[in-house]
Amino acid sequence: MSATRPATCQMFETPIIERFSRIHPATPLFFWLPVLAYLGYRAAANGVGIGTGLGLAFAGLIVWTLTEYFLHRYLFHYVGPRPWQRRMYFVLHGVHHDFPQDADRLVMPLGASVPLGSLFYALFLVAFGRPYVDPLFIGFGLGYLTYDGMHYALHHFRMSSRWGKWLKRNHMIHHHTGENARWGVSSPLWDWVFRTMGE
Length: 199
Hints:
The protein is about 65% helix and about 0% strand.
């Protein structure tokens, strides 16, 4: 009789760090949605019209899909030759490939998403200035929340729609037979553009 594979592992020896490496899948929504709502209020108060705001939010969403693709392909799957690089890969993403059903590690912990979100907001602010940064970041943030929620759903829910079934199959191929392809999780757009759908 074969032993059942564990669903999770301990990543850190320090209990507090180990605790904060885990997150309830709804936590990003409870944190980020009020932030994005405030940015929407501020954009309106600063005179950004509905049409301009929606256009910038859509642009932010497209920027998110590209960011998701590049982060997943070039950062999350980078395994360098040095021990600290291999450890970094495991902490960032390798643990997910080793334990794909670990429900506490399917969305990004706030300890990672808040600094990354702040960094992208600062980059957008430098590039586009006020007041356009806020609606752009709203689209980017909604794209991120869609990615996190979809990633959780692809691993833990049965997909009933045709599109949902296709996305789940696409992601499972990445996990099981095509780890060097199919980098898009919430959208296959950039895999099609860059021809990385694999077999």
